[in-house]
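Appendix B, record 7
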Amino acid sequence: MADAAPVAAAQNEDQDQPAPEHGDQKSACSEQKPASSTRATVLVCIAFASSGIAVGSLGPLLPILAAETSTELALMGGIQSAFAVYALVSSLVSGAVADKRSALGYRWLGATLLFAAIGSWALPAAGSFTGALLSIGCQGAAMGAFDSAGNVFILWAHGARAGPVIQASHAAFGAGALAAPIFIAWLGDDWGTLCRANAAVSLLCGLSLALCETTPTRPEAAAVEGEADAQEAAAALAAATRGVKASTLVLFFFYSGLEGCYALLLFTFAVEQLSLSAAEAAALTSAFWLCLLLGRILAVCLSVRLRAAQLQAIDMTTMGAALGVLLLVSDSRAGLWVVTCVHGLGIGSFYASAFSHCGDVIVMSGALSTGTVITGSVGKIVLSVVFTSAYSRWAYLYPILLVSCWVASAAAYAGQLHYGRLLSADSTQP
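Structure tokens (predicted):
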């Protein structure tokens, strides 16, 4: 089947080496990576950090751009929605390019970064609402395209060893997003310096990736061998593959909603229900994002030793334990601090773990990578509306809603495991 996980042992040229477990992906360059492939990996991680700076700058820059362009803040806030829409549309295009024009490889990523550089460089000189909209829209389109193709290229290039690289790229993104508001506050009226420096980083990474000599190669799918009824075996593999894909998309819907809604209402819940001051609630929110980043950094180290499925299980357990405690101590200030920090550590690496786990089980495609981006974004939008509507009427339900969202994520994760095991069993039967 085209989507079944590759059988890496049959592709090993050196028979003296032990065969990897089923589900491991091996790209054409995974055995001996040339220096250009290593350089491309480093450049991709730097580019993710640059994307994080662009995303992290949006919030702090909104009032500044509104004042400089004489635009109402409510109208300027629509720029964030435009950023998201551009990112979603471009991710659709980028997923198709990754699948159908895979020979472009890192050159495609280089092209997306050139657009990011243009948007970042033009923003300080926008001068009007339209100019700011075009500049930030350009950044959003570049980020969506880069994110959709960049993640899947990492899987193709590194195969079974992609876990630490994906975790590192997401940690770099988080570091950039966390650093951006700090730099903007520090630079003050000279905030344009950050945009231009970020543009220079995107430009240099883009040009370097465009000149990269290697191209990530999509792994071959496993062939069904030794089955008495090949059609029946193929049908079973296809059904299990569809199950993995559906479970993964549902998982990203609820996980993204859980992450977004926790951060969205944390400040309000802390102030209104626990009587924290605005400064204390802001510090609590910052602690959540800091722990999320620390969780990603910790996952880089853990993923060297653990498989993606194991790391994903640790993440699910950590989040579930934290939210379970929240139900018991939802009226405690100290309890909320502990829960927020532990939950941030658990949820920080979950995206990369879930993505890598899916790539371990089936051959990841650009279309599926795009699907995770889209379902995650839709999940944040839909569940944010549900959570805010429910909170406005029944604020005490906030912890219960969070736990319900985690339960749905856990069910989807169980489905991902179940269908993955079916794939492994069907593909290895004699």
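Remarks on this record: Confidence is low (pLDDT under 50) at residues 1-32. The longest helix spans residues 230-274.
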